[in-house]
Structures are given as structure tokens and as C-alpha cells.
């Protein structure tokens, strides 16, 4: 498997909306497995295809401690079952070192396709619900920093640009 490059804020490609997937083939499976490998390598719990410059509606998630329960989610959509706002403190592989409190729906019903193109659905709450909502935001071009104040957004952009400049000098 190949480790993919994760785009970091403020890269404009993170704002590009992902397109629906129509081809369920070995190339899709390879993309999904490379995304999963990348997510594990970077110690994440979820990764959207747009974060690795693939602008297709594909998400990988694994909330298990031993990394044994990956979920491959193609063309996701969800409906809110319980809109009681829960404040979720979230991080993001595309915005290293940044955390933001985000209001999320407590419970959702996720509809999606698996890697074979078969329709599936399940009810998610807690961390799974928040993770799905976070990753679907990515597919829609919305980022964690969008939930922050403009001042905080400017500070994190400046900090990440300095980090990136430091890496480019080495």
C-alpha cells in the first residue's frame, strides 16, 4: 500500500467539492486501501478523499483501538435523527496541531454504498456520528477552521504557513 500526501490548510484543493463515485472497481478499492493506510500512518480515525487530493465521495473510518474495524463509505449522505447539539472537540489531519469545538448532531442515520456499490445504512451516535459529520464536511469543501472565529482562522493559517516554510527550507 502507498502512503498518500495529506493536503494541509490553507491549500485551496481542500475546498473543492467531491463528485459522486459511479465506478466500483479495483481502482476504487486500491484508493480506499491507500487512504486507510495513510490514515493509520498519521494516527487518524477518519479521512476523506479530498484530504488526499482525490475529489470523489469516499471516506475511511476506523474508531477501534487496535485498527481492526475499518469502514469504507462511498457516496455518503446522512439525516439527523437527534439534533440535540453536542459540542465535539475535534482535530484534523489537514490542520495539524489545531483543535476546535464544533456543534454536531447527537445521532444520525448514514446512507452510503460499500466498495462493491451495494447500498447500506446504519444509525450512528457519539464519536462515530461526529466523525462522519466531520468527514462529510470535507467532501463538501467545509473545513474545521470554518467553525472558528476569523481571528483564530487567521492565526492558524499563519502558524501552518510558518511550519510549511520551515519544512521547505530543509
Automatic annotation (TrEMBL):
Enzyme Commission (EC) number: 3.5.1.88
One Gene Ontology molecular-function label: metal ion binding
Biological process (GO), any one: translation
Active site: 135
Catalysed reactions listed for this entry: N-terminal N-formyl-L-methionyl-[peptide] + H2O = N-terminal L-methionyl-[peptide] + formate
Classification via InterPro entries: Peptide_deformylase, Peptide_deformylase_sf
Taxonomy, superkingdom: Bacteria
Cofactor(s) this protein cannot do without: Fe(2+)
EC class: hydrolase
Cited HAMAP family: Pep_deformylase
Protein name listed in UniProt: Peptide deformylase
Job of this protein: Removes the formyl group from the N-terminal Met of newly synthesized proteins. Requires at least a dipeptide for an efficient rate of reaction. N-terminal L-methionine is a prerequisite for activity but the enzyme has broad specificity at other positions.
Keyword tags: Hydrolase, Iron, Metal-binding, Protein biosynthesis
Gene assigned in the entry: def
NCBIfam families: pept_deformyl, PRK00150.1-3
Amino acid at each position: 500500500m502507498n502512503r498518500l500526501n495529506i493536503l494541509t490548510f490553507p491549500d485551496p484543493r481542500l475546498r473543492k467539492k467531491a463528485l459522486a463515485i459511479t465506478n466500483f472497481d479495483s481502482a476504487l478499492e486500491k484508493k480506499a486501501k491507500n487512504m486507510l493506510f495513510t490514515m493509520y500512518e498519521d494516527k487518524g480515525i477518519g479521512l476523506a478523499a479530498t484530504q488526499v487530493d482525490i475529489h470523489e465521495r469516499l471516506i475511511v473510518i476506523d474508531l477501534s483501538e487496535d485498527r481492526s474495524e475499518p469502514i469504507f463509505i462511498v457516496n455518503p449522505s446522512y439525516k439527523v435523527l437527534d439534533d440535540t447539539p453536542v459540542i465535539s472537540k475535534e482535530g484534523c489531519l489537514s490542520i495539524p496541531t489545531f483543535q476546535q469545538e464544533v456543534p454536531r448532531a447527537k445521532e444520525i442515520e448514514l446512507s452510503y454504498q460499500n466498495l462493491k456499490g451495494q447500498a447500506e445504512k446504519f444509525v450512528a451516535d457519539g464519536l462515530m456520528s461526529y466523525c462522519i459529520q466531520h468527514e462529510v464536511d470535507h467532501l463538501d469543501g467545509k473545513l474545521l477552521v470554518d467553525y472558528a472565529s476569523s481571528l483564530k482562522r487567521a492565526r492558524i493559517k499563519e502558524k501552518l504557513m510558518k511550519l510549511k516554510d520551515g519544512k521547505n527550507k530543509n
